[in-house]
Amino acid sequence: MADVQRWPGLVLAVFTLIGLAFPVLFGAFVQGYNRPPPRKNLSVPADDPGSASPIQVHTSVVGEDRMRVAWITDIPSPATVVYGTFPGCSYTYGIIYTYGDIHDVVIGPLKPNMQYYYRCGSSHSDPEFSFKTPPAAFPITFAVLGDIGQTEWTSSTLQHIAKTNHDMLLLPGDLSYADLCQSKWDSFGRLVQPLASQRPWMVTQGNHEVKMIPIFHPHAFTAYNARWHMPYEESGSDSNLYYSFNVAGVRVIMLGSYTDFDPSSAQYQWGRTPWIIVLIHAPWHNSNKAHQGESESVGMKEAMEDLLYQARVDVVYAGHVHAYERFVSFFLHFAYYHWRWWQP
After folding, report:
1. Four-residue CA torsion sign, 158, 160, 165, 169
2. Where is the Calcineurin-like phosphoesterase domain (predicted)?
3. Active-site residue, from 58, 291, 333, 338
4. Model pLDDT for residues 173-207, shown as the tens digit of each residue
């Protein structure tokens, strides 16, 4: 637990796809990095405990013209979202899905690259939020953030991301570091709400989401699946732990390092588009001294690496080791610089 708490909030990249043949270069040389010292853990308290006011609001995409809005209330209340393109929303989309005090509503159809204003719940006194839908085509900007946790480093990282004009955040696992402490999930939801309520957050699970208690609670991923419902149904997956979605002509595949990944598993059921981005938690290639030889890395690499090559995957992002490392094949470097040399 100690090594986990030291290094949350690793920004993997903020990058823009602009539709060129080789639009992004992910580094040609290995560079050294000295880790800064740890900072204190954070715990974000509730503003109005015991009320029906929406908290921990976050958004995610569902298909190409819908958004999922999820939030939590301390007491039961209607799962309703009022939304529109101007402040003071007037259009209501009714109750879709309720899980205890966790509310999950899909709204749409929505226009691409459009600012929408929305209110969670049925009370006009509830706060109004806003989000921007992703664009329908290039350019699109992704922020990629792994192993985020809840420390002062997390807060600093989120502030940096907030300054970028990104369209979507991708997170390859290890969200709250709550482990078995459910109140830390609540604190995490409050911590990320300013960003997650404004741009879609697309996440997959890490080892800190697995948590279960033998005999007493033998089911894994209970809190993660309830609080972070991703569009797995729409992608033909049978599990919230792996799914795919299309955005602006990019196929994004969120793989599950901590569920079945052998050739007969459902993770093999996705197709191809011109750009394919894959996110996993446990890296398949890793020169860091930590997390070597783990079955989630070695076994999944042996089972699926050839599949990704055959699908011509463009970019793979992983988390887990709490260190920044990047590499590309010699062919990609050669092709990129060859392409650059011929540009006017």
Report:
1. negative
2. 141-324
3. 291
4. 999 998 888 888 889 999 999 999 999 999 999 99
